Amino acid sequence: MQTLRYLGPSVLDMGGLALQTSGGPALNPRFFSGFLTTPRAAAAGLLAVAEVARTRYFQPVAPASLDPVVTGSSDRLRFESFSGCCGVYARLDVLPPGLDGEILDHGTTNVDVNPPLREALARVAGLDPLHLAVGPDDLTVSTMDGAVVEKKVPLPARWLRGFAEVHVLAAGFEPLAELSAADATAFLRRLPGGNDRSVLWAVPSGRTLRLTSRPAPGAVCLAGAGRLAALRGALRFATGLRVYGPRVGAGSAPVASTWQLDARELRLSVTLSPEPYRGFSGEGAVLAALASDDVADDAALVGALLSWDPTIDVDALAADAGIDAGRVRAALTHLGTAGRVGYDVADGAYFHRSLPYDAGRAERDNPRLTGARALIEAGAVSADGDGAATIRSGPEIYRVRRRPDGGYTCTCAWWAKHHGQRGPCKHALAVSMTAPR
């Protein structure tokens, strides 16, 4: 099955029959064209990703944008979206066993998902085939009811900031729990629904997870349990549920977490921000990596070396670029500010997207970074010794101190409000950028 766009209509008139052609592959480029081997599961996964894109979990409003990002890699397809509040990130990975077709090229596009496509996916049943044709300008989904074509649309700027933050946070995640399909179904179905804004903690207990109101070693943060609702439609196809997050202890602040359904040929994951009201676009996780003077140049070099392998080998990139692995990771963070890099917790590795790279985006999207550079250029940073510094910003004077864990405290209002949980303030960032290497 192929879907082609013709250059114009065929015409039958007094002069005869003029048949129009499609113009061939050059005018109809495709990343992938073929069938999905588990059509019902794939349709449920695509609907879940679209459902997240159309939902605003914090202060709900009428459904709005439905614009999943589709990436064709060397052996798989990835569909990604953010919620309207940017606090939930969803991804469907269609793995090699889930594809029955030809991967013709690689690339990324951002398409709208309108009601006709959602209705077509919802009607996939039994042995109905599901065919996809993914190109740089559109996504064509063909079912027994016919073909639906969704065109490329602009990518929301807030999504780019979200992509950058999510991949940095996810790179610090570890597998914390694993449930069978039956236990996962029971656990997810008893969670609070609706616009739940509580921050709970899920502690492994036997074959399932036990919910508590306080963190404990080995617990997983579950902020706004209702935000996992998108997973429920795919539960009947899952073989299990894996949960990822950072290691926490008693007294830990809320953190992000990833909840991933495994269906052999597919993986459907939902990543939740640390608190229901917090969008990923403002987490500030990228700031420390962007503070280096060399990071922009490193990003340009690493970006030129990226390939379309399913995962990015950091050590191999470091060897090819002639820089150490730490600088490669910082460069990947910089590339992530333009959405060029993501992180797969199941593979424990970065992956590549093809979005236009803008070297100036890191500065524009991170005003704290711009503010820190302005403080340095104004000579406002004075080192006091022992990791402490004084910052003079207009009539105000701030004190920054280095903590034993390498972070910083500051006397400014930003730090007093967030206590370093949403990245460093501009004063601490300026001190870290001027500290001896």
Automatic annotation (TrEMBL):
Keywords: Metal-binding, Zinc, Zinc-finger. Residues 398-436 form the SWIM-type domain. InterPro entries: DprA_WH (IPR041614), WH-like_DNA-bd_sf (IPR036388), Znf_SWIM (IPR007527). It comes from the Bacteria. It comes from Virgisporangium aurantiacum. One of its GO terms (molecular function) is zinc ion binding. This is SWIM-type domain-containing protein.
